[in-house]
């Protein structure tokens, strides 16, 4: 069984932080049977990423050799640097989706130690939207890799395109105003990112327009932050509102008339998702999703 197969369970957790897994063994000789020490700086890796390469580093027992494998294929030794008790490696050619990286250390008598992690690469994502909306008016947003353009197409239940155009891009974020969808029903929004070589990647989401839905808005999307705090906000009209950060209900947030806000603190490294749910007087509901990537 390959390492990629062993880690299948982790691949079912996209956008989640995956800790380094340790494996140890020993050589066939006598004497010291302790595996060489091997660590990954930070212990976990920030995922998802949007680049095709990544540099990892950590500590290793002095004198041990280091090998690195990407999806069960060994990378060139020229991409690995070991100086004393420190190692670093640049891993190229990450594919879209889950990438399993294994780092192996072997001492001079054959004792070995391994670390493995899953790095998720995404070219384009849809991160912020509300569904249903009473009139279709909202801005849908997401992340996109550098040097890509994003084209958006929206189709109705019959497959007829009702809106299309180029998304606005700011840094690693894209956005598209979908105001004016013609009638109640389901619509499929497809965002297509295309790089300079013409390689395209897509992401999609189904949005619902419902005249009786309560109003919910999310303030402009912020793709990433460098500190462990972030302010979320928006507006709503309804009987009640609930917030859930990373699946846990938020007990304390601010409601000021038709506005809501929440100051999140102690965000974990990686992607943090906020779900906002509004219930109207007739018990119809609307939900909005947004996220922020904490990269210290």
Task: Outline the structure in words.
This protein is mainly beta and 296 residues long. It folds into 3 domains: 3-121, Sandwich (Immunoglobulin-like); 123-210, Sandwich (Immunoglobulin-like); 214-296, Immunoglobulins (Immunoglobulin-like). Helix content is 3%, strand content 52%. The chain contains 2 helices and 26 strands. The protein has helices spanning 3-6, 8-11, and strands at 21-25, 38-40, 54-60, 65-70, 73-74, 80-83, 86-91, 97-106, 112-121, 129-131, 139-143, 148-155, 161-166, 168-170, 173-177, 185-195, 200-209, 215-218, 224-225, 230-237, 240-245, 248-249, 254-256, 259-264, 270-279, 285-294. The strands form 6 sheets. Strands 10, 19, 21, 22, 25 and 26 form a 6-stranded mixed sheet that branches. It has a 5-stranded antiparallel sheet with strand order 1-9-8-4-5, with no helix packed on it. Strands 2-3-7-6 form a 4-stranded antiparallel sheet, with no helix packed on it. It is elongated and about 70 Å long. The protein starts with a helix and ends with a strand. Mean pLDDT is 88; it is low at 1-22.
Provide a short characterization of the protein structure.
3% of the residues lie in helices and 52% in strands. With 296 residues, the chain is mainly beta.
Map the helices and strands:
Layout: H1 3-6, H2 8-11, E1 21-25, E2 38-40, E3 54-60, E4 65-70, E5 73-74, E6 80-83, E7 86-91, E8 97-106, E9 112-121, E10 129-131, E11 139-143, E12 148-155, E13 161-166, E14 168-170, E15 173-177, E16 185-195, E17 200-209, E18 215-218, E19 224-225, E20 230-237, E21 240-245, E22 248-249, E23 254-256, E24 259-264, E25 270-279, E26 285-294
Parallel strand pairs: 19-26
Antiparallel strand pairs: 1-9, 2-3, 3-7, 4-5, 4-8, 6-7, 8-9, 10-26, 11-15, 12-13, 12-16, 14-15, 16-17, 18-20, 20-24, 21-22, 21-25, 23-24, 25-26
Protein name: Bacterial Ig-like domain-containing protein
Organism: Desulfuromonas versatilis
């Amino acid at each position: 069984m390959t390492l990629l197969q062993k880690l299948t369970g982790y691949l079912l957790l996209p956008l989640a932080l995956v800790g380094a897994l340790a494996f140890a063994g020993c050589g066939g000789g006598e004497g010291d049977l302790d595996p060489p020490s091997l660590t990954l700086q930070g212990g976990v890796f920030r995922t998802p990423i949007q680049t095709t390469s990544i540099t990892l580093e950590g500590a290793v027992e002095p004198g041990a050799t280091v090998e690195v494998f990407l999806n069960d294929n060994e990378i060139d030794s020229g991409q690995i640097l070991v100086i004393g008790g420190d190692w670093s490696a640049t891993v190229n050619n990450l594919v879209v989706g889950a990438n399993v990286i294994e780092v192996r250390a072997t001492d001079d008598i054959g004792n070995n130690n391994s670390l493995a992690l899953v790095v998720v690469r995404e070219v384009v994502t849809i991160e912020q939207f509300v569904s249903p909306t009473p009139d279709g008016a909202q801005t849908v947003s997401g992340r996109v890799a550098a040097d890509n353009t994003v084209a958006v197409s929206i189709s109705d239940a019959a497959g007829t395109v009702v809106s299309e155009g180029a998304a606005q891009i700011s840094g690693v974020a894209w956005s598209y105003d979908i105001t004016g969808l013609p009638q109640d029903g389901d619509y499929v929004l497809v965002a297509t990112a295309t790089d300079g070589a013409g390689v395209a990647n897509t992401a999609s989401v189904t949005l619902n327009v419902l005249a009786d839905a309560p109003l919910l808005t999310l303030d402009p999307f912020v793709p990433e932050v460098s500190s462990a705090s972030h302010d979320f906000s928006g507006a709503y009209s309804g009987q009640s509102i609930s917030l859930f950060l990373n699946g846990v209900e938020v007990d304390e947030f601010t409601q000021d008339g038709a506005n809501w806000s929440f100051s999140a603190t102690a965000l974990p490294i990686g992607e943090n998702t906020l779900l906002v749910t509004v219930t109207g007087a007739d018990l119809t509901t609307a939900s909005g999703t947004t996220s922020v990537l904490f990269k210290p």
